[in-house]
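Q: Two folds, back to back.
A: First:
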Amino acid sequence: MSVTGLVTATKAGRAAAARLEQAWPATRWYPVADLVRAWRECDRIVCFLAVGAAVRLLAPLLRDKHDDPGVVCVDEAGRFAVALTGGHDGGANRLAHEVAGALGATPVVTTATDVTGTGALDALGLPVEGDVAAVTRAMLDGEEVTLTADATWPLPPLPVTASDTPRPPCVVVTDRIVDLPRPAVVVRPPSLVVGVGASRGAAAEEILALIRDALAEAGLSPRSVVRLATADVKADEGGIVAAARALGVPLVTHPAERLAGVEVPHPSEVVRRAVGTPSVAEAAALADGGELLVPKRRSAMATAAVARLRPRGRLAIVGLGPGSRDLMTPRAVAEVRRCGCLVGLDQYVDQIRDLLRPGTRVIESGLGAEEERARTAVRLAREGHAVALVGSGDAGVYAMAAPALEFADDTFDVVGVPGVTAMLAAGALLGAPLGHDHCAISLSDLHTPWEAIDRRVRAAADADLVVAFYNPRSRGRDWQLPRALEILAERRGPGTPVGVVTDASRPGESIALTTLGGLDVSAVTMRSLVIVGATSSRVVAGRFVTPRGYAWQPSPT
């Protein structure tokens, strides 16, 4: 867990720092005289000082932006949180937003890529090498920057042009050691797994030398090594543990039975008798799939092999909420901004087009193409892209999550991002109609036979549930809502509250509170949501309420 240092000089600064201490668990307070100690001990620092004073104090401490902690400066009144140093590598830009959120301040970020929305090469979350400043400047100046990749990885959007051959200025995504024309940036993907075996007592230096020689002879970068892997029986082998630590990667261990089931080119009966599997290094490297690049190599007391993993794409299924931007969750905003490919209904894409970063590929289509959108999103994720499939409300409620997951497999990662549903948005506008047990039923019989919908409405009526009707009525489907209301009226009185909300949180929003006997169905459209109360529902001071009390409270009819 990263540690945040809070540096203060005044009583007002200490009071503001105390608010951050309450909000964040891993904080340490330092008086301004101990700034040097904070610099040594913390991953990021918040200085409650004037910017000029902070600059003079910090200048002698600055060494390398890749290693220095990120620093944010907050004024005495707590109005601004200024990212001062270490914007990307030190996390100061992100910290400025976090501080601003906790204190109710305004974040001030001046990094060019952040303020223009351009993807930052040093903020991809992957190791980068080369002329980062020069290539970034080319992107900001609108020059053509080419992108060449050995495989498709789920990168955030970048304003680049795909190319089979690197042409400077360029970005190259590869785990290989390459000589490139300048200016160029090399992005190292997390693609290599090193399988390791060792005799008891093998030294870390020997294991590391073997790994480095294996990578070097194959022309592979150690910065693309994502983990070391070995057999369970070697989990506490000191040399292997120390080698993983020196490389800065996790050590993953596998049971001998699993390794024994991995097909390898160089099995050994001697190894099988010793540890229960005919291969450790090669099998561990290949245990999670992939391609063997470096077969087993030996030193006096160790073995190593290297495999390349297949990239895993990423599909984020994002609920945008009912329409209003302030009802869209921060997580949904973040997923929209980080995706390389956005797939959605054209009218929903229009709602969020201003959030898209330069280089985002947009695939949009009209009503009726839901299955096509789902298949497209899955295909792109399977190819290795970072994809966001967007829909209104919550993507899992009568929206895109179900069709997408029907077509999905386990070759890519899936992230669900919840959203405020139409039912919740309408309920909040009406009062508290969903305060007790309730259900949602779609009246669209385009994909569900009316007979099934009829049974569900009757079951809801018998169970005395509050019912929220989605897709209640359209020009081509005008009889389903009246029929559903007739079924409910068999169990509920004509005075039962009914709410109709159209275009909830959108321009033209309308709210109507009526009764089961008085509802004018002609005012209901496909953009409406109809909520019919239970027998306990009532109108209190003009608000639709379903009490949650445990005593049965039937309303007068």
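A: Second:
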Amino acid sequence: MTSAPPQPDAVRAALSAAPQAAPAYPRPDLDRSHRWTSLDGVWELDVPGGAAPTTVPITVPFAWETAASGVGRTWLEHATYRRRIAVPAEWAGARAVLCFGAVHHHAVVRVDGAVLAEHVGGSTPFEVDLDGVLAPGAEGVLEVEVHAPADKRAIPHGKQRSIPRDDYDGVSFTPTSGIWQPVWLEARGRTYAARVTVRGESLTGFDVTVDVAGDAPAGALVTVEVAATAGSDPGAGPGAGGTTPGAAERIELVADSTGTASGRVEIAEPRLWSPAGPHLYVLTVTTVPATGGEPDRVAVTGGLRRIERRGEHLYLNDERIYLRGVLDQGYWPESGLTAPDVDTLVADLEHARALGYNLVRKHIKLEDPRWLHHADRTGMLVWAEPPAPSRFGTEAAQAFEAQIAPMVERDGNHPSIVVWGLYNEEWGLDWDIPGSPDRADAAVRAYETLHALDDTRPIVENSGWAHVRTDLVDWHYYDEDPAAWAANVAALAAGTREDFPVRLAPDFLAKKSLYGSADHPRSGLPILNSEYGAGFTSLERAWHLRWQTQELRRHDRFAGYVYTELTDVEHEMAGLLDVDRRPKDRGGLDPRDVNTETVLVVDLVPVHAGADLAVPKADLVLGVHVSHHGPGVVRGQVRAAWVPAGTPFGEGGVGEPLGTGSETVEAKPFELSPAVTVTVPPPGPVTAARLHLWLVDDGGAVRARTFVDAAPIEEPNRRGLRWDG
């Protein structure tokens, strides 16, 4: 065993001063936390330069571009990590496995100078078996040499900035290079469950496949025991869990000659997983070789739920569902793609929930499994998708497809994932599916690859436009003009229009079609928006959120929407929250009133932010509909009252028996109600006012709220300056 190289004083000091906070096990959904040790913390990093590399301290698992890493170097293409590791002596008789959450992009792993593994793929996990390398109680020097090319165009990198900066640099962010997900050691049995696939789509039990590895996989006895978890509710914190006492269902399987064991566990009294009741089960998988020996145990989390499409609608557990989603890119100002800590990581799910959303689209990023586990426990639906390259070619397409199997293996057990995404807006396909059979074939091939691995979830092969083979027809549409937005959304819903304008550059406006070929079916699949939003200021964005979302809710054909986006990211200021997750000034709008199962839809095309219409001088007559996506029929009355301009709900008597009432309205699930008429007198001699509108049901409960702002309508001041010089 070689000794560690000499450490510079600064590195030695950093190592000795490293915080020793109790880490969270990185795979709570595939739990071996009874025997593990974290390798996160301060490592050495050899940075090339001059005649010899410079050694600096780096905090793992933060990318070397970030402040959190302590390095803060952008466009560093090659570096080597180093630290001492030890296999605990109490792991005698077990197999020690070194696990990496993700390393961007090409990693070579050595222990005491010997190459043990090589991995390509910046977002997928990998592991290294240390059996025969480090015995229990022994120490060694671990090195991870990383290559992270500045030119990322042919490798999956999502929205990391690349050089040359000639593809979509305007919407890209600081790169993420090196180790950016946790690193840890764990103990497994000499013969162990390497992969456990759990599917609960039948709603009455789990289909389980266990791939056994190690000393004697063939003929191994595999026992699967199922118990319900405690704390499976929307208020459960990140550490909630444990199993409830009581009898558990159990099956025994024998691995075949290839080491695979498959079977089904029926649940006597099944409880389903849903956003309203995120009930989870823990499947404890115990593996014992046929020759006997120490058993291997791993606890896998699963849920009984079924997501399916029926014609143009989506159903969860045989009940129709409408997706009210928000796009989340998973960036933090000091730490990039890696959350500062687990509490901060999962807090973004709670922010989305507090804003009224039931789904998060994690945008072109394979997120930390602890985030997905929290979504499982709290009932948040997830649209998951991998990063893509930015230019098309054989190498790029193969690199993209290489992520698909590891993505399904790592994340396929999560009941929260209800949609798989693949390419996004033809990124990695040169924005040209309709004009290129090769690019169209690449999208189809990606779909077929994923479908062969998991046919239990809808798959979107190219999110946004130019669909060639998909289970959902989704579209991305941004428009600052409320009249054009309303008209185009109505035409897309009616099927009389299938294209829309997309600004690909400041001076390049293209028409993009929902369909990438003439023979793609124009009906029969769920259709939904998966990116929208507009406005420069936070007030404008809140205004567009209110009016654009109501137009999506006006059309019963749509199966949902995804607003862009949850938080600001670097130069992108489109978030409902800023980069530090603080709410913005929304002019009195509560996004929960927009993103709830029952909303009001007003027959009005607004003029501009702060002035939906001019202050009326006579009675104002408005048509108001109710869109209801919950169970049962909602009956009630729409009431209206003028309040001072900018007054939020909760002030001005809203909810009291004040204001003008409409006739009774009845809203059936997933059917826009007929319009009822609300007639209100003018607000009086005021410069501006706000009209609160709210639905009171027959039981007296307020079920929906919106408002209309009245103020002077002025033409935009766009006078140019004359230059005579």
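Q: And?
A: The chain is about 15% helix and 35% strand.
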